[in-house]
């Protein structure tokens, strides 16, 4: 089945029209790739890439959500560490949300989750997603033991870590082929609750000092940062860190003890389909940031929170991306290495002085880099922020930030990008030529293509 539809990223900017194809089996997937036409095709999961990575103007978009089955769960297999591990073999179109529904009652959790659980396993590998635990656990693909990959010639390959094809596919934005299934290592948990510590940092330097000194004590760590604060308060933040709560951390008479592994995320009403332009302007976001900072505790330890509250607060509001209005928004995320803190300070100061109204800004620390040739994480500091797309002069301002990031030997995240220039990309990803060469050998006709790949000459 295929239909011509308008397709956009989660930021709702620059939609393009493509033929949507929905394979339900491996055989249908092979047929879809063979018949995708001159403009090629690109796999798409749940559409959470913010920019144009899962769009393909005039070509095909492969909706992978029909390949959504759990094949096997093996709780006896060792994880390669001293701790016992489990693995799940699942199709690429299954969401992390569905995996949590299946795995949590069994005492297992996904190894890495980003800020939304509505991401498919194929998308998690293609974008090599990271979460609040990168400083401990690395990116998602580090926990993938094998994957079945359908390449442009119609062949299905079983791809394993340590091979060029694996390293090109992890973070390769769907451009090496269509991921059909994967074997993923899991994290053991005793409850579906988190034990969370929260504290306030007075400015950016205070925040970085706290993170550098104590992040090693926590599996998960993230800081919300006020990018409208200026002067001595520049970079003031709310730092939230935690780990999976063990069963003995639950109060003896807590209701959760009766079903410690229950997964029941709540949901609020959906954002309206029409939101007036300019609702999230500097004044309204400034007020929100002031209230959010002041309501946070100066220091609180051991608070029990639901997994959904700690990891995915925005998932509780369906279609929350509508709140930016019809113009949509740009998500900008970059990383600069340790030792480049002055570059981070300059960029935060420029954003603050520019008055960019971002209420979803977070700062985290990355650990060891990942093997994917186009994987985003590298050891250092990563800042992500959302900005209304209709902000005057936004394009040229972000181009200037790109130059700052590249000069500091950092990079931007392709899964969130919608406007980077190809000459800047080359300065950020040192394995880019290797990726292009492998693509040329693997897919000489350009079967797998996207708006992103055309824009950045991938």
Automatic annotation (TrEMBL):
Top-level taxon in the UniProt lineage: Bacteria
Keywords: Oxidoreductase
GO molecular function per UniProt: D-arabinono-1,4-lactone oxidase activity; FAD binding
A single cellular component GO annotation: membrane
A matching Pfam family: FAD_binding_4
Keyword presence, Oxidoreductase: yes
UniProt cross-references to PANTHER family, sorted A to Z: D-ARABINONO-1,4-LACTONE OXIDASE (PTHR43762:SF1), L-GULONOLACTONE OXIDASE (PTHR43762)
Protein name, as recorded: FAD-binding oxidoreductase
Species for this entry: Streptomyces kanamyceticus
Phylogenetic placement of the source organism: Bacteria, Bacillati, Actinomycetota, Actinomycetes, Kitasatosporales
